[in-house]
Write a structure and sequence with these properties.
single chain; mainly alpha; Multidrug-efflux Transporter Regulator, Chain: A, Domain 2; Globin-like; 3 domains; three-stranded antiparallel sheet; 73% helix; globular
Length: 248
C-alpha cells in the first residue's frame, strides 16, 4: 500500500515542501514516483520519517540525522527507538512534575497560603556543571557566557543546539575507517566544534587543547561524548590539539 505525499503530509504534520526537501537531500526518498511526478510512500518510509522526527525532537541537525540513519540496521533501529522512548518518557515525567508544581503554586496563591521552599522548585532542571564552572573560571566569565547565549541569532542558536551532536556523529564513522585526526574531513568537523564553543567563550590554543584533554580525563564528559566509545573521545582530543596548533 502506498500513500501520496499529500496524505503523508496531512497525517504526519510535515509539509509537502519539507518532504520534497528530505527527498532532495537523500534523507527520505519516496518508495516510488508516479508518471505524473507524484511521490508515494510505503510503510518503510513512514517508519523512517518517524525516526527523523524523533531525532529532530532530540535536537539533532539533518546532517547528524542522516549519519545516524545511514549506520542503522533493522535491529539497531529498534534499539534507537527504545532509547528515544526512554528519553520521551523521562521528559514526560519531568513536565508532569513541573505541571504539579505550578498547580500547587496556583492553589496556594488562591488560598492565600505559601508553598514550602522544598516544593516550590520541583521539576526544574539546573545545569550540573554551572557551580563547577563558576569555581573554575569565575562568576564574570559564566555570566558573560549566559549573556552571549541570550544574544544568539536563530542560526547560531540552532548551531549551539545541534552542533556537538553533528561533530560526534560525524567523527564516529571516520574513526571506524581509520582516518587520521589530521585529515581534512576530521578537521572540518573540529572547526564546527570550535565554532560552537566560541558561541559561549573563545578559547585560545592552550585552552582549546586543555578542553580536549578534559574530555578524556573527566568521566562525565567522556561518557557524554563517547557513549561508551572512549576511543572516539581520544580521537576528538587529538584532532582538537592538531586544530589548536594549526589554526589558533
Amino acid at each position: 500500500m502506498g500513500w501520496s505525499i499529500a496524505e503523508v503530509a496531512r497525517t504526519s504534520g510535515v509539509t509537502s515542501r519539507t518532504l520534497r526537501h528530505y527527498d532532495a537531500i537523500g534523507l527520505l526518498p519516496p518508495a516510488w514516483v508516479a508518471d505524473n511526478g507524484w511521490r508515494y510512500y510505503e510503510h518503510e518510509q513512514l517508519l523512517r520519517l518517524q525516526q527523523i522526527l524523533l531525532l529532530r525532537e532530540l535536537g539533532l541537525g539533518l546532517d547528524a540525522v542522516a549519519a545516524i540513519l545511514e549506520q542503522q540496521s533493522r535491529h539497531t533501529t529498534v534499539e534507537v527507538l527504545r532509547q528515544h522512548r526512554d528519553w520521551l518518557v523521562a521528559e514526560q515525567e519531568r513536565l508532569a512534575r513541573l505541571v504539579h508544581t505550578v498547580d500547587r503554586t496556583i492553589t496556594d496563591i488562591e488560598k492565600g497560603g505559601e508553598m514550602a521552599p522544598d516544593t516550590m522548585f520541583q521539576g526544574f532542571e539546573h545545569n550540573p556543571y554551572e557551580a563547577e564552572a563558576r569555581e573554575r573560571w569565575g562568576d564574570d566569565a559564566v555570566d558573560a557566557s549566559h549573556e552571549r547565549i541570550k544574544a544568539l541569532s536563530a542560526d547560531d542558536a540552532e548551531k549551539a543546539r545541534t552542533g556537538y551532536g553533528r561533530v560526534h556523529d560525524g567523527l564516529a564513522p571516520l574513526l571506524a575507517e581509520g582516518v587520521p585526526a589530521s585529515d581534512e574531513r576530521v578537521q572540518e568537523l573540529v572547526d564546527l566544534h570550535f565554532q560552537v564553543i566560541s558561541l559561549f567563550w573563545t578559547p585560545n590554543a592552550e585552552a582549546y587543547r586543555g578542553l580536549g584533554q578534559m574530555y578524556v580525563d573527566d568521566e562525565r564528559f567522556r561518557q557524554n561524548i563517547g557513549q561508551g566509545n572512549d576511543a572516539l573521545v581520544t580521537y576528538l582530543r587529538d584532532a582538537m590539539a592538531i586544530y589548536a596548533d594549526g589554526k589558533l
